[in-house]
Amino acid sequence: MRASLRRLRALLTKEFTQIARDKTTFIMMIGIPVLQIILFGFAVNTDVKHLPAAVFDQSLSAESRELLDSLTACEYFDFQYVEKSNRAVDDRILSGDAKVGIIIPPNFTENIKHGRSAQVQVLVDASDNMTSSSAIAAAQLVGSAKSQQILLERQGIGRKSSESPIDMRIRPWFNPDFVSAYYMVPGIVAVILTMTMVMITAMAIVKEKEVGTMEQLIVTPLRPVELMLGKIIPYVVVGYAQTIIALSAGILIFDLPFRGSALLLFALTTLYIVASLALGILISTVSETQVQASQMSMFVFLPSMMLSGYLFPRESMPKLFYYIGDLFPITYYLPVVRGIVLKGIGMNYIYPMFFALLVYSVVAFTVSVIKFKNKLG
Predict the structure, then answer these.
(1) How far apart are CA 227 and CA 78, in angstroms?
(2) For the packed helices 262-285 and 224-254, what is the interaxial angle rounded to 10 degrees?
(3) Under 8 Å CB-to-CB from 173, ≥6 apart: which residues?
(4) CA–CA distance, 240 with 252 (Å, rounded to integer)
(5) What are 32-87's pLDDT values in tens digits?
(6) Helices 347-376 and 262-285, interaxial angle, to 10°?
(7) Are 308 and 331 in contact (CB under 8 A)?
(8) Less Cβ around it within 10 Å: N or C end of the chain?
(9) Coil/strand/helix, residue 289
């Protein structure tokens, strides 16, 4: 019995010593739970407030300003864009700059004063179910509260009206039936590409270093850039196949509408694949084992899932985490894939995301080539 305990103690001492010496793995083991706690505790907030909104106030009256002040006071709307036409409000929603559009007609005050129902058009980007639900509920609540206030004022002066003074006409765009699959399936395309291009690529390259095949490739006449291209091109093809399969399944199974240009989507998907592959290769250059590569990939994958807008609206996040989300390519790809598939928008609306992905791809790929070349050296 004592001999068995001595052998077990010796083995445990060896294992703990090995863990302590492998500082990278030890840091990851501690860091990943801490990262999850921070992300879920601070960044995840399902109570969506301060939605960017655009307004076209044709009335420009005290009554219309009071309504807008009430919408602002409820903290669900931030009127960042004051437009001068219906088209301008539409463009803000199509581009994703605004989640909500408020259009107040020129006869708004006249209808209220004459006891008629004053209609207010509320355009909501319903491609995001969580955001649109919060916006619709808040707009209806404010409209109802203002109507009750006006009715009480009318009773005070002996006037009665059977109509609601303010009629908030809600118009959900892109997903009027609020089908969750329409919002999730395009996002799943981005998540699948992230997993394959970052995690699997990093682990595959590190595996080759572990089994020794990488050393065999190094002694061949291949240049580092050629070797790197040979590693990533097959994954680019795999990425295209995954995108086609995921979107086809969404269309066939969930009746997902595809309203935009498939050619434009795949062109921008190429940039996203390159950026994600570059991250995977970069991780492989600083990892010695597949376990390390997997753990380091989680430091990219978890924030990508939480801070990009895939699961939770970015508008509800604290500013610090909002800006951290800008460090991941999926943050720029999600508006692209959802915009093209659900909204049918073109390059004129998503060019900021195009340039962001282009810069990200060039910088990440260049750094990865340099690090990969130095690692081989």
Answers:
(1) 50
(2) 130
(3) 93, 123, 124, 125, 126, 127, 343
(4) 18
(5) 666 666 666 666 666 678 899 999 999 999 989 999 999 999 889 999 999 999 99
(6) 30
(7) yes
(8) N
(9) coil
Q: How many residues does the chain have?
A: 377
Distances (CA, A) of 51 to 25, 72, 97, 138: 40, 10, 10, 11
The alpha carbons of the chain give a radius of gyration, in whole angstroms, of 27
Find where tokens 């044709």 sit. Answer: 58
Dihedral sign computed on CA atoms, order 202, 207, 212, 213? negative
Q: Does position 180 have pLDDT exceeding 70, yes or no?
A: yes
The residues with which 167 forms a beta bridge, in sequence order, are 119
Residue 103 to residue 119: CA distance in whole angstroms? 9
Output the CA–CA distances (angstroms, integers) from residue 204 to 60, 220, 242, in the order listed: 62, 20, 18
Token pair listed for 54: 């655009």
Residue 307 Cα to chain centre, angstroms: 7
Structure tokens at 117: 């129902």
Rounded to whole angstroms, the Cα distance separating 145 from 138 reads 11
Residue 110 has pLDDT above 80, yes or no: yes
SS3 category, 114? coil
Tell which residue, 161, 113, 110, 164, has the closest CA to residue 140.
164
Segment among 93-97, 193-197, 220-224 with least mean pLDDT: 220-224
- pLDDT tens per residue, range 141-176: 999 998 888 888 777 655 555 567 889 999 999 988
Structure tokens at 137: 């509920």
43: Cα separation from own chain's centroid: 13
**Whole-structure pTM value:** 0.81
Angstrom distance (rounded) from CA 313 to CA 192: 19
The four Cα atoms 285, 290, 292, 295 give a dihedral, to 10 degrees, of 110
Output the six-digit token pair for 186: 């395009």
Answer for the pair 71, 77: CB distance below 8 angstroms, yes or no.
yes
